[in-house]
Amino acid sequence: MALPASENGATAASSKRKKYALIAGGVVFVLVVLAALVFATVVLLKDPVRTETIRDIVIIFLAAEAVVFGLVLVILVVQVARLTALIENELRPILESTNETLGTLRGTAQFVSRNMVGPIIRVNSSFAALRRALGAFRAGRTR
Question: What pLDDT does residue 6 have?
Fold first, then answer.
């Protein structure tokens, strides 16, 4: 369903405004980050002792972050191993049982088709042929 021309134009103008606002926001963000980097560089160059202290603190935080990432990686590996074991030990037997059930169902459907549906269809077709034959004889009698 197409929008009327006035609503379609308003939507396009609104979309352009959003696009320009997003671009302007991105430019402002980049400028703020650059200003912060320049300010941090100037402050750090003025006081070498403070710079060394901040450097040491950052190194400690990075080391702690590496330890946390290492632990998260170990937990991830353990979870993948548990998932593999779950698939191997629990889902595979369920799938095998499902396949066995489908095989039984297929056999049952073939049995019913062979022993019930087939004979019923043959009897019905025989009755239909008999009805047609009787109808043909009746049509011949009325002439």
Answer: 54
Residue with tokens 């369903």: 1
Q: Which domain holds residue 47?
A: 28-117
> Rounded to the nearest 10 degrees, how much is the dihedral formed by the CA atoms of 116, 119, 120, 124?
170
Asked, for residue 60, whether it belongs to a domain, the answer is: yes
Backbone angles phi, psi at 3, to 5 degrees: -80, 150
* DSSP letters spanning 53-107: HHHHHHHHHHHHHHHHHHHHHHHHHHHHHHHHHHIIIIIHHHHHHHHHHHHHHHH
Return the pLDDT at 134.
87
Series of mean pLDDT values for 10-residue runs along the chain (143 residues):
58 86 95 94 87 92 98 98 90 89 92 87 90 83 57
- The tokens describing 130, both together, are 């008999």
pTM: 0.44
How many structural domains are present in the chain?
1
Which phi and psi (to 5°) does residue 50 adopt?
A: -65, -40
